[in-house]
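Dear Dr. H.,

I hope your travels went smoothly. While you were away I took the liberty of generating a structure for the chain from your last submission, since the lab meeting agenda had it listed for discussion. I wanted you to have the full record in hand beforehand rather than looking at slides cold. The sequence, exactly as received, is reproduced here:
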Amino acid sequence: MITAEHISKIFNDIKAVDNISFEVKEGETMVLLGTSGCGKTTTLKMLNRLIDASSGFISIDGKNIFDQQPEILRRTIGYVSQSNGLFPHYSVEENVSVVPRLLKWEKSKTQRRAQELLEQLKLPLSEFGHKYPDELSGGQQQRVAIARALISNPPVLLMDEPFGALDPITRAGVRKEFLELPELKQKTIVLVTHDVQEAFELGDHICLMDKGKIVQAGTAKDLILKPANTFVRTFFDHQRLFLELSALAFQDIWEIVNPDLDVENDINKASHTEINAETSLWAGMEMLSDAGNDALPVRNDATGTLKFFTTSSIQKAYRTLKRHN
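The corresponding predicted structure, in token form, is as follows:
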């Protein structure tokens, strides 16, 4: 869906982005992760030509973006920024309807679509449509910005630190809603963040950047367990335990779990409903912590088996896996 080949951007003889390449497949979420000034936002803005690359090639859906007028290109790409970019003198409904007006949609079609999206984002049009941005909380404003980016149903969504201006509690809540939004299941998304936890939660693939270059690209598990160099290893050190347990799923420790935790021996320990083996170890341990230290039933669809895990068995299997890697 998105292909970038050897793209660079030079500002005043300084390479903000230095000869990077990547590919984002249709329906995937790729995260550009790194500290301030690493080139991740510049990279994102080159994809919709808010900034033009100094060199290199970019295509979206097989089409060279440099063969298209920037204004036409951007109509097929949703964009959400950290500052939300809402027009203060427009109501919620008017803000969400900006792109449909440019596309000359019928008013009834625009209203139906706005209502559908705002309902999904827990901002019913009947209650919030007439309100102005300064009457909304930060989380509500960002939900409106997401609705505006999605209203024309673009196949691609670009997000620049979309939750960065929110307080930690609101940020976690909006991020959870974002993950559950049906609209996003078939979108191709490129998201910029400096938040490692956010990158691990949202990204199918992550490009870790430093000084304008991609230092390592891969899954969260690749980056945390198979770092390409010292920079990658130390970048994650301050949250390593949490990140490793978030990157690993029950299926990763399935074959090294103590046999006495099989369903035959632990059927009476469980007070939870079954979860899938693709669930992260961290999420499983949170479930156990919330309900007390009982057993958690986990089903592995690939093997057709069911096992029960306790906090101690997860920790033991994790340590064993670490020793073998």
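Two observations you may find useful: Confidence is low (pLDDT under 50) at residues 259-264. The two ends are 34 Å apart (CA to CA).

With kind regards,
E. W.
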